[in-house]
Design goal:
mainly alpha; two-stranded antiparallel sheet; 13 helices
Length: 293
C-alpha cells in the first residue's frame, strides 16, 4: 500500500517542485520580450519592477521604458561592450561619482522631480555640497532613503556629529524608529533664509509641531525661548537632562550672570533654578513674571 502511494505522490512531488522553476522561466521570458534591456540586465530589471519607478500602472513612472532615465540606448544595445547608455549613473568603487556625472544625473532626476518637497533642490545645502540624488536614492532596488526604518542610518552615515549626539543620555527617539531625520528636516532643501533645511522654516516652529504646549503666547514670556529653542536645547541629543546644552543652574547663569541670590547661598545653587522657577518656557499666571507658577 505504501509503495502504491509512493508511485502516486512521487511524480506529483516532482511536479510541485518543478512548477516554481517553470513559472520563473516563463516570467523571465515574458520580461525579456517586454523589456529588451532585461536580456542582459535581468537582475537589475527584476529589482527595478519592485521599486516605485517600475510601477507600470502609474502613468507618472518610467515603467518599462528604461530610456526615460538612461537616455539614448540604441548604440549601447547594438554594441554593449564599447558603447554605454547616455546616462549611466555609474559610481566608483567608493560609491562616488565624478562632478560631471553627478550634475548630469541630477538633471535627469529633477526633470520629473521638480515640485513639492524637491522644488528647492537647486542651490540647496546638499546640492552645493555635491550630494546627488543617487547619493541617497536607489532606483533598481529598495530605496533606503524612503524607508522610515533605514533613512536615519543613511543620514548619519554622513552627519557624524549628529550621529554621536543620538547616542547621548537624552535624545529624540530616532534610533528606536519612532521618528527620523526627515521628521524635522527636508533633505531636498528649503526656502532661502530657512534654518537648517527645517520643514517649518525655523527651529521653533519645527519644535512646536510636536511640542505645542511650549508655543504660547504666554502672559509672561521668556525671551530666549521665544528667540530659539536651540538657545537651551541641543535637538540631536545631550548628556544633560531634557537635551539641555548645560546643566541647571549653569545654563540659567549663562544669561542671568547677576544672580538674584546671594553668592554665598549654596543651598539654592545646589538645588537648581528649575526647582523654584519650573515654568521656564513661560507663564500665564497673573503673578508669573518670575516663572514660579
Amino acid at each position: 500500500m505504501h509503495r502504491a502511494l509512493q508511485k502516486v505522490l512521487l511524480p506529483l512531488g516532482l511536479f510541485v517542485c518543478a512548477a516554481p522553476l517553470w513559472a520563473a522561466q516563463t516570467a523571465d521570458e515574458g520580461l525579456t520580450k517586454s523589456v529588451p534591456c532585461a536580456a542582459c540586465h535581468q537582475d537589475l530589471t527584476k529589482n527595478y519592477f519592485m521599486s516605485r519607478h517600475g510601477v507600470t500602472a502609474d502613468s507618472r513612472t518610467p515603467g518599462k521604458n528604461c530610456s526615460t532615465c538612461h537616455g539614448e540606448t540604441l548604440r549601447h544595445m547594438s554594441n554593449p561592450m564599447k558603447e554605454k547608455p547616455q546616462f549611466t549613473f555609474k559610481k566608483d568603487v567608493n560609491g562616488f561619482m565624478s562632478e560631471e556625472n553627478l550634475k548630469a544625473s541630477n538633471v535627469v532626476c529633477t526633470s520629473c522631480h521638480k515640485g513639492g518637497e524637491q522644488k528647492h533642490w537647486a542651490h540647496s545645502a546638499h546640492e552645493n555640497a555635491q550630494v546627488g540624488c543617487v547619493s541617497c536614492h536607489s532606483n533598481h532596488k529598495a530605496d533606503v532613503a524612503l524607508n522610515d526604518r533605514t533613512s536615519t542610518a543613511l543620514c548619519i552615515s554622513c552627519h557624524a556629529e549628529q550621529k554621536a549626539d543620538l547616542f547621548k543620555t537624552t535624545a529624540h527617539p530616532l534610533l528606536s524608529g519612532q521618528m527620523n531625520c526627515v521628521s524635522c528636516h527636508n533633505p531636498h532643501g528649503s526656502q532661502p533664509g530657512d534654518e537648517a533645511m527645517t520643514k517649518k522654516g525655523n527651529t521653533n516652529d519645527t519644535c512646536y509641531s510636536c511640542h505645542p504646549g511650549k508655543r504660547g503666547p504666554f502672559l509672561h514670556g521668556h525671551q530666549p525661548v521665544t528667540e530659539d529653542c536651540g538657545n537651551c536645547h541641543n535637538p540631536h541629543g545631550s548628556n544633560k537632562g531634557a537635551m539641555l546644552k548645560m546643566s541647571d543652574p549653569m545654563l540659567c547663569k549663562s544669561c542671568h550672570a547677576a544672580s538674584h541670590h546671594s553668592p554665598t547661598d549654596t543651598v539654592n545653587a545646589a538645588r537648581g533654578c528649575l526647582n523654584c522657577h519650573p515654568q521656564v518656557h513661560g507663564s500665564n499666571h497673573i503673578d508669573g513674571r518670575k516663572f514660579e507658577n
